[in-house]
């Protein structure tokens, strides 16, 4: 008996990046960094949508993760392309915590999670997918959100399209800032 296929063609860009020809531990420079691109000043509405930017301030950027762990997975990143907390000023560290707090309020309002994981991976060995640009993950969670598909098949089911998630979150973020 053959197993059914679960098609996820949007993942190919991510998977191909994992096999890049860059040496191990290579951190992309600012010109190659999607977090730097998301944090650029003066982006028009179409570019913000393309880069999934929900909010930007003087310290950082809040955006939707293009490769989410679950529905509503957000990222918070400083405007500077730096790998360590110690590379940021005290003011920027505080401002980024305020962006994390904004993101948690946004998630609570829009996707109504029962909990939220807030994580920071420092270095590739710690799980950082972009080790050259520090960023936090805000992952909404629900009791029982890991099911047989994840456990048995190693596949995550995201119940909402990325563009629909973006529209809901973008509409709501304006009410919170």
UniProtKB/TrEMBL annotation:
Its EC number is 2.7.7.53. Gene3D superfamilies: HIT-like (3.30.428.10). InterPro entries: AP-4-A_phosphorylase, FHIT, HIT-like, HIT-like_sf. Residues 40-148 form the HIT domain. Substrate binds at residues 65, 127-130, 137. The active site is at residue 135. It is an enzyme of class 2 (transferase). Keywords: Nucleotide-binding, Nucleotidyltransferase, Transferase. It comes from the Bacteria. A motif (Histidine triad motif) lies at residues 133-137. GO terms for molecular function: ATP:ADP adenylyltransferase activity; nucleotide binding. PANTHER family: AP-4-A PHOSPHORYLASE, HIT FAMILY HYDROLASE. This is ATP adenylyltransferase.
């Amino acid at each position: 008996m053959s197993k059914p296929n679960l098609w996820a063609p949007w993942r190919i860009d991510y998977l191909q990046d994992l096999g890049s020809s860059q040496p191990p531990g290579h951190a992309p420079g600012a010109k190659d960094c999607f977090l730097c691109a998301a944090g650029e000043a003066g982006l028009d509405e179409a570019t913000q949508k393309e880069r999934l930017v929900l909010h930007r301030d003087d310290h950082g950027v809040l955006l939707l993760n293009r490769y989410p762990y679950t529905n509503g997975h957000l990222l918070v990143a400083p405007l500077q392309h730096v790998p360590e907390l110690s590379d940021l000023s005290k003011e920027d560290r505080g401002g980024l915590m305020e962006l994390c707090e904004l993101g948690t309020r946004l998630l609570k309002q829009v996707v109504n999670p029962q909990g939220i994981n807030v994580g920071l991976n420092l270095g590739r060995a710690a799980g950082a997918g972009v080790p050259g640009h520090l960023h936090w993950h805000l992952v909404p969670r629900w009791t029982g959100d890991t099911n047989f598909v994840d456990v048995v098949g190693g596949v995550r089911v995201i119940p909402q399209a990325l563009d629909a998630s973006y529209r809901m979150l973008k509409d709501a973020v304006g009410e919170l800032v």
